[in-house]
């Protein structure tokens, strides 16, 4: 496909100018700014939700079950047990972000070193690509089913299943970027100077590969958030009574006849979170693209 | 060579500009040129001087953002501003193109026979089978051995020189009046180059096609062209029959170009290659100056105050746009450059 | 060509073997006595002993593995703990539903995704591109099971246009079958359509700015011919790969979609099995999914070599 010809940052000063250029491009893109603000807001709310939430998530009120949105004291209404929907959504979003970050962290911790090794050492490439094939053969939901069978369903297992399923993607982008960087002059120069493989990988390749890793992470988080919602919806993820957007939707499905509106808000929040990450990821990729306005 | 008959292609005052974020950039500025039947005209200049843009604009192949003014007449028919459907009938049938990179200019997933046949199917309404048979003939015509087998090959199975011959076969499939060859030999080995130029010459002789060959390689020009047009920063700065140009360059830029490339008959050691100082200016409108003034050894106030017109500078059909044309052979320019 | 296929066949076989080992180890990692898990309702010591002998649980691990592979290859996945029916017969009733759903979803996604992707690339910078890009981003971000829920609530229940749940086998009544499965298939296809659209658009932008498209234009071809014969054909290579890689996501999606629309397929069987701790069923599901993924991707590679002559002839992807 297209060949990148622009040399990547090698020295400290070069990377600083590159960073300012990327930041400037992001600031000029209204979609990037809006999505970043949404994400920052969501992050703050998630962090502070235990204090911000108007009610405790477990506080039931059997006198007022299925209160519709707009009810005094319950902005988004109450659920089947009379619990405050707004409070549960806030903490559910917090759990979504938690799983998203945990899953992506898992995939990066395993995927980045493997991707570096696959791209840098020819001998490892075949072995690692078999491992990638193996992982790809187990879709995240099937992985979650297996894990749930062995260890029981939980937030942690959901995050691990999603994270493992995201490893191949990380390996792929890191490997191809390593291959590209390895062929550049400054890496060859370092090798000629007698630098050890580990030194070259840590000092030259990894720092220059951060941008593709960052982009990969930004698009992996929304996928993980959607994954968590699916797993929790099916009962393979976060277990009730802990608040989760996915389980809220499962409840809504159960009581669809009595409270059809209950299915709306949790879904909107999931979509909003995922959309903000995806939009920001696109903007980030555009800003990092040396060819500028390419896509 | 023959210039008596009416020109096949008549370019008058052709200008092309592109809008950019920082304003309009002019790429071609007032180019005029005639192409007689069976004539090979070389267009020469450094990269970025507007050669390729000129070539692409002839059949309306520039991106839609390009603003093209002036006139391009093919056998009297105006092409600038013509409808897209009219231009489509011209492309590949009356004006055909050969591009620089035969590797990437052919579609990797279609056989060469299919790609040649496609032109015939579109313009000659040939059946797929007839087009394929004709493709074999065309491949033979451009000197590809065992064409009957090669016709079913994919581009990646052919060598660079063969691919360029395929491009040529595709271009001449409908017997075009004008063949535009944009750096046709640049990506090829020298030995292969000679073969490709020979094919072009043969086709001109056999089919009477006019050829506009664009290159930065004066050796190619000397080898094949009847006349030469020298472009600099979007303008034609000199135009002359090929022998005249090499013997008596009038424009200071042409003189610089000639002394910057090795010539037969010049001696290493005594005649050294000279570099033209400075860089090609950014292609922006400079209506009130000679575009070469900043790099020219002979530039004065007049050069910076007004753009010189293309004027007769003696000899047959030899024009140059220079206020202070060289009087004698390249040595003068070389002296001035030292 | 032959060498390429041989290499891919060998790699697929190896991956299949590896995934079988993973599942085998996974089964051993299940809590409790595997014999107990396999026993179903009858848990008398004699029955357990018989199971141990039947499944070779008293043998060394490599022997057990060999026997395990043999049984799986014969389609003997054991007996459902819950219903007592052989897992293989459960699969034969459930799989057709899932296959139909998935194939339909892929077709819908490919049609929408390739169409919108080509449109977005060709109408670069125009409203059509913004619209297509925006819809793709939303398609990528929307939880499709939620979309399914809303569709049932506001489309099926409210208007009665589509049945809210249930399934009719295609052989019984093709029209009613389609009526039941079309909505789930559209819902399942949305995410995949978004991914295909983005890949198609990006590949088309690359092709459209390529030298061979310039050549095609210079030949005097109509825009339609330039786009379909020259640009799209090259872009489809990328799209086919994407569909192959997204198969895992599609299987995951099918499980949820079946659950929501109450389709009696593979997915519903899986979820039921998890909650009933029906280990033989879970094991069969996991193993079959992996095998299906590997085999289908092998065929995707075959398809790939049909589209791209560079692979077909020389055997290495350019």
UniProtKB/TrEMBL annotation, chain A:
InterPro entries found in the cross-reference section: BP-dependent_transpt_permease, MetI-like, MetI-like_sf, OppC_N
Record membrane topology: Multi-pass membrane protein
Top-rank taxon, per record: Bacteria
Gene3D superfamilies (UniProt xref): MetI-like
Protein's GO biological process: transmembrane transport
Places the protein is found: Cell membrane
Record-annotated membrane-spanning stretches: 31-53, 99-121, 133-150, 156-174, 212-238, 259-280
SUPFAM superfamilies: MetI-like
Domain ABC transmembrane type-1, chain residue ranges per copy: 93-281
Tagged with keyword Ubl conjugation: no
PROSITE patterns: ABC_TM1
Gene Ontology cellular component list: plasma membrane
Record key words, sorted: Cell membrane, Membrane, Transmembrane, Transmembrane helix, Transport
Entry similarity comment: Belongs to the binding-protein-dependent transport system permease family.
Name listed for the protein in its UniProt record: Oligopeptide transport system permease protein O ppC
TrEMBL record, chain B:
Chief localisation class: membrane
GO molecular function list: ATP binding; ATP hydrolysis activity
InterPro entries: AAA+_ATPase (IPR003593), ABC_Ni/Peptide_Import (IPR050388), ABC_transporter-like_ATP-bd (IPR003439), ABC_transporter-like_CS (IPR017871), Oligopep_ABC_C (IPR013563), P-loop_NTPase (IPR027417)
Record-level GO BP terms: peptide transport
Membrane topology, as annotated: Peripheral membrane protein
One GO cellular component term: plasma membrane
Statement: the UniProt record of this protein carries the keyword Amino-acid biosynthesis: no
Pfam families: ABC_tran, oligo_HPY
UniProt keyword terms in alphabetical order: ATP-binding, Cell membrane, Membrane, Nucleotide-binding, Transport
Residue ranges of domain ABC transporter in the record: 9-258
Locations listed in the record: Cell membrane
Family classification: Belongs to the ABC transporter superfamily.
Protein name stated in the entry: Peptide/nickel transport system ATP-binding protein
From TrEMBL, chain C:
One CC-aspect GO term: plasma membrane
Keywords: Cell membrane, Membrane, Transmembrane, Transmembrane helix, Transport
Membrane topology qualifier: Multi-pass membrane protein
Domain of life: Bacteria
Matching CDD domains: TM_PBP2 (cd06261)
Main location: membrane
Subcellular compartments: Cell membrane
Span of domain ABC transmembrane type-1: 95-300
Transmembrane segments: 101-122, 134-157, 177-197, 236-261, 281-304
InterPro entries linked to this entry: BPD_transp_1_N, MetI-like, MetI-like_sf
GO molecular function: dipeptide transmembrane transporter activity
Keyword Transport among record annotations: yes
Family listed: Belongs to the binding-protein-dependent transport system permease family.
Protein name as annotated: Glutathione transport system permease protein Gs iC
């Amino acid at each position: 496909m297209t060949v990148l010809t622009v040399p990547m940052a090698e020295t400290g000063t070069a990377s600083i100018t590159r960073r300012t250029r990327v930041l400037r491009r992001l600031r000029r893109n209204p979609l990037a700014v809006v999505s970043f603000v949404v994400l920052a807001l969501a992050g703050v709310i998630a962090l502070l939700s235990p204090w911000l939430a108007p009610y405790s998530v477990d506080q039931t009120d059997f006198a007022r079950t299925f209160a519709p949105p707009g009810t005094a004291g319950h902005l988004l209404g109450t659920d089947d047990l009379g619990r405050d929907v707004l409070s549960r959504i806030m903490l559910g979003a917090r759990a979504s972000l938690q799983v998203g970050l945990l899953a992506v962290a898992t995939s990066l911790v395993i995927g980045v070193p493997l991707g570096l090794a696959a791209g840098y050492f020819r001998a490892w490439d075949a072995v690692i690509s078999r491992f990638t094939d193996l992982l790809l053969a187990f879709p995240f939901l099937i992985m979650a089913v297996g894990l749930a069978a062995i260890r029981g369903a939980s937030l942690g297992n959901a995050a691990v299943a999603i994270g493992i399923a995201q490893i191949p993607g990380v390996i792929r982008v890191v490997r191809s970027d390593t291959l590209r960087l390895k062929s550049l002059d400054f890496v060859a120069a370092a090798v000629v100077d007698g630098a050890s493989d580990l030194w070259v990988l840590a000092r030259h390749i990894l720092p220059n590969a951060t941008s593709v890793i960052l982009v990969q992470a930004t698009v992996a988080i929304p996928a993980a958030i959607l994954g968590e919602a699916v797993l929790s919806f099916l009962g393979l993820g976060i277990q009730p009574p802990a608040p989760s957007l996915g389980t809220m939707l499962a409840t809504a499905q159960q009581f669809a006849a009595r409270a059809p509106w209950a299915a709306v808000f949790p879904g909107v929040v999931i979509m909003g979170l995922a959309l903000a990450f995806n939009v920001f990821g696109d903007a980030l990729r555009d800003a990092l693209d040396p060819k500028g306005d390419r896509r | 060579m023959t210039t008596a008959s009416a020109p096949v292609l008549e370019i008058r005052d052709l200008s092309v500009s592109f809008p950019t974020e920082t304003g309009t950039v002019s790429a071609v500025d007032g180019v005029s040129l005639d192409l007689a039947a069976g004539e090979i005209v070389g267009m020469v200049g450094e990269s970025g001087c507007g050669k390729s843009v000129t070539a692409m604009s002839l059949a309306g192949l520039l991106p839609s953002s390009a603003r093209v003014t002036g006139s391009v007449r093919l056998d009297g028919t105006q092409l600038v501003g013509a409808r897209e459907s009219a231009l489509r009938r011209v492309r590949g049938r009356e004006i055909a193109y050969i591009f620089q990179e035969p590797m990437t200019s052919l579609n990797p997933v279609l056989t060469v026979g299919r790609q040649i046949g496609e032109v015939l199917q579109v313009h000659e309404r040939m059946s797929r089978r007839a087009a394929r048979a004709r493709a074999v003939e065309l491949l033979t015509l451009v000197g590809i051995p065992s064409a009957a087998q090669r016709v079913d090959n994919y581009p990646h199975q052919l060598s660079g020189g063969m691919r360029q011959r395929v491009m040529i076969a595709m271009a001449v499939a409908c017997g075009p009046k004008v063949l535009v060859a944009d750096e046709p030999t640049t990506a090829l080995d020298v030995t292969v180059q000679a073969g490709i130029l020979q094919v072009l010459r043969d086709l001109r002789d056999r089919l009477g096609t006019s050829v506009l060959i664009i290159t930065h390689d004066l050796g190619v020009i000397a080898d094949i062209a009847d006349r030469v047009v020298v472009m600099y920063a979007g303008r034609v700065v000199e135009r002359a029959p090929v022998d005249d140009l090499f013997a008596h360059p009038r424009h200071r830029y042409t003189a610089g170009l000639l002394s910057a490339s090795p010539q037969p008959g010049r001696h290493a050691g005594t005649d050294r290659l000279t570099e033209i100082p400075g860089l090609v200016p950014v292609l922006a409108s400079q209506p009130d100056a000679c575009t070469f003034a900043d790099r020219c050894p002979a530039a004065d106030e007049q050069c910076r105050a007004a753009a010189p017109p293309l004027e007769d500078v003696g000899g047959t059909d030899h024009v140059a746009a220079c206020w202070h044309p060289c009087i004698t052979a390249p040595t003068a320019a070389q002296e001035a450059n030292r | 060509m032959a060498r390429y296929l041989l290499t891919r066949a060998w790699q697929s076989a190896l991956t299949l073997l590896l995934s079988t080992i993973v599942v085998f180890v996974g089964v051993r990692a299940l809590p409790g006595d595997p014999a107990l898990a396999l026993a179903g309702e009858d848990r008398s010591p004699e029955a357990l002993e018989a199971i141990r002998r039947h499944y070779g649980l008293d043998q060394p691990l490599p022997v057990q593995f060999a026997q395990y592979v043999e049984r799986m290859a014969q389609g003997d996945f054991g007996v459902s703990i819950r219903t007592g029916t052989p897992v293989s017969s459960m699969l034969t009733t459930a799989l057709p539903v899932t296959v139909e759903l998935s194939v339909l979803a892929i077709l819908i996604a490919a049609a929408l995704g390739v169409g919108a992707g080509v449109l977005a690339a060709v109408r670069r910078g125009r409203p059509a591109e913004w619209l297509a890009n925006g819809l793709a981003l939303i398609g990528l971000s929307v939880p499709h099971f939620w979309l399914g829920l809303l569709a049932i609530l506001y489309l099926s229940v409210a208007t009665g246009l589509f049945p809210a749940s249930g399934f009719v086998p295609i052989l019984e009544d093709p029209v009613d079958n389609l009526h039941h499965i079309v909505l789930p298939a559209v819902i399942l296809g949305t995410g995949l359509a978004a991914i295909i659209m983005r890949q198609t658009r990006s590949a088309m932008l690359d092709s459209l700015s390529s030298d061979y498209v310039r050549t095609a234009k210079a030949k005097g071809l109509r825009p339609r011919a330039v786009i379909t014969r020259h640009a799209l054909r090259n872009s489809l290579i990328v799209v086919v790969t994407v569909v192959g890689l997204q198969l895992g996501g599609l299987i995951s999606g099918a499980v949820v979609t079946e659950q929501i629309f109450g389709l009696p397929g593979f997915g519903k069987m899986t979820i039921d099995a998890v909650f009933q701790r029906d280990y033989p069923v879970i094991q069969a599901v996991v193993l079959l999914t992996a095998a299906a993924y590997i085999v289908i991707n092998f065929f995707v590679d075959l398809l790939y070599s049909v589209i791209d002559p560079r692979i077909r002839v020389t055997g290495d992807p350019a």
